Every structure is written in C-alpha cells, then in structure tokens.
C-alpha cells in the first residue's frame, strides 16, 4: 500500500496541498478529480517519489520512504510507474520505446542476468513488451517509428512502456485529455486490465465522468485538499460535502 499522511506541499509561498491523506492498494483504481491547477500533478509526483512533500509522510508497505537512504528509496521507486500527460517517446521504434522502460527500471544485476540468458521471445521481442503492447492494442505497430504515431497511439505506447515494467503501482496524469473516444476507451480498458492484474492505479483527471466509469474510489481535490474521498458510487450518488456536490453537479465552475 502507498499511504500519504497529512501531506502538504508548497512551491515557495504558494501552498498547493494541505494535509492530504490517502492510501492506494494493489488491485484498485483511485480516481483523483479536480479542476486544472488544483495540484493533481503535484500529488502524483509525490506518490511517484519524484517530489518530496514539504510536510507529512509517504509510506510504501509501511516504510517511510523519505527516511530511507537513496538506494532503498530507489528500490521502492522502481515499483511505481508514471504516465505523464504528454507522451514523451524516443526517436526509435514502438518496441524499443517500450523495452527501454523495462531496461531502465531493472536493477543492474538483473540487466546483466538478462544479457546472459536469452529473454527474447520467438519473434525477437521481449515477452513483457509484446504483452504490454497487447493490452493497448498496439502489437501490430511494434516496428513503427514513434514519431510517426498519432497522438492517441503515442499515449497508448507510453502506457505500455509503464506497464511493461510490471509495476505495483501505476500513476496516470490526465491520460486521455487530448484523445478521441476510441483511444480514450482503449486506455480506460487498459486501466481496468492493469487493475485486474493486481496493480494499484491512480488516475488524475479533470473528467469526472471518466472517474465514474473506471475508478473504484474517488478523491475530490478542491482548494488545497480533498473535500472527500470514498467509493465512486457514494461520491457521485451521495456526496456528503457541499463543495463536492456542487463540483459534481457542475454548479461549481472553476
Ligand atoms: N515546479 C513548480 N514550481 C512552481 N509552481 C509549480 C510547480 N509545479 C506546479 N506548480 C504550481 O502548483 C499549482 C498546481 O499545479 P499542478 O500541476 O500540480 O496542478 P494540476 O491539478 O495537475 O493542473 P493541470 O490539470 O492543469 O495539469 C499550480 O498553480 C502550478 O502553477
């Protein structure tokens, strides 16, 4: 479990998050909804251990990550994959892009072992790469150059790159904000497949309907913290906080 307890974060004088607490379990989808600029990316970066919060604690499986030394923290960080809002692929084929994600996440000992024993499947592609591309329906584009992909395809490859590492936790920052309905549906299906594999998925989105479709629990980020966090059904059908109710009904416009 990743757990944030009373986490606050500021950039200089600007307080972005205040006393945020949440937990993410393997095998669930947690949706973080809130308007643009409220701090969703900051929250994901804290969960990914990229950003150290100004205050509060971040635990992974009971270990307070910011009290650990660098190498122990890096070992925990390898269990978390993040997909950014913009797909950032290298100038190489789809397969190489996904494989690269796999390699950089491997501890050097495993990389060495992989080089010593053959890890290639019959078609010359690492099994984890093919499987991850299959989840996003991109196996037929293995050899295509990344720069020639459409925006939706590139985002699906980014997703596959994150999934191929076999993370315990997968963090997605507005994964479909610029995508058409077909690509959005493919990514949403892939999120559910990741969850069914036992991965804990966090999806930050300003699209509350997306959260309603795919999340098991939802946290509503308004102002500098959660107005509430709970089961998707309860948050959408019976919010206890007035600001949540207004945000979900569209009365609260940012
Ligand atoms: N590195 C940084 N330095 C200074 N301010 C920052 C930094 N990163 C984010 N901010 C500020 O923190 C606030 C929250 O930003 P953040 O990107 O976390 O929000 P968001 O909810 O993800 O927004 P969006 O949905 O538009 O991406 C914004 O006011 C932003 O300008």
Automatic annotation (TrEMBL):
Pfam families membership: ABC_tran (PF00005)
BP terms from Gene Ontology: phosphate ion transmembrane transport
Give the UniProt keywords, A-Z: ATP-binding, Cell membrane, Membrane, Nucleotide-binding, Transport
Q: What GO cellular-component annotations does this UniProt entry give?
A: membrane
Question: Could you tell me which residue ranges the ABC transporter domain spans?
Answer: 2-248
> What molecular function terms (GO) are annotated for this protein?
ATP binding; ATP hydrolysis activity; phosphate transmembrane transporter activity
User: Which InterPro entries does the record associate with it?
Assistant: AAA+_ATPase (IPR003593), ABC_transporter-like_ATP-bd (IPR003439), ABC_transporter-like_CS (IPR017871), P-loop_NTPase (IPR027417), PstB-like (IPR005670)
Which superkingdom is the protein from? Archaea
Its protein name is Tungstate transport system ATP-binding protein
């Amino acid at each position: 479990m990743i757990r944030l307890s009373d986490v606050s974060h500021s950039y200089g004088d600007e307080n972005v998050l205040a006393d945020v607490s949440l937990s993410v379990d393997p095998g669930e989808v947690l949706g973080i909804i809130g308007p643009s600029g409220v701090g969703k990316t900051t929250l994901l970066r804290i969960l990914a251990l990229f950003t150290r919060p100004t205050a509060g604690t971040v635990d992974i499986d009971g270990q307070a990550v910011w009290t650990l030394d660098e190498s122990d923290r890096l070992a925990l960080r390898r269990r978390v994959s993040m997909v950014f809002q913009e797909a950032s692929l290298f100038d190489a084929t789809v397969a190489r892009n996904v494989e690269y994600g796999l390699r950089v996440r491997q501890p050097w000992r495993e990389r060495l072992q992989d080089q010593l024993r053959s890890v290639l499947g019959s078609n010359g592609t690492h099994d984890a790469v093919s499987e991850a591309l299959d989840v996003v329906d991109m196996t037929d584009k293995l050899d295509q150059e990344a720069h020639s992909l459409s925006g939706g395809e590139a985002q699906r490859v980014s997703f596959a790159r994150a999934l191929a590492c076999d993370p315990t936790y997968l963090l997605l920052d507005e994964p479909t904000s610029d995508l058409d309905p077909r690509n959005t549906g493919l990514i949403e299906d892939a999120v559910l497949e990741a969850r069914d594999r036992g991965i804990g998925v966090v999806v930050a989105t300003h699209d509350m309907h997306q959260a309603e479709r795919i999340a098991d629990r939802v946290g509503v980020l308004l102002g500098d913290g959660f107005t509430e966090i709970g089961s998707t059904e309860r948050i959408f059908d019976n919010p206890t906080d007035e600001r949540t109710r207004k945000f979900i009904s569209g009365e609260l416009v940012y």
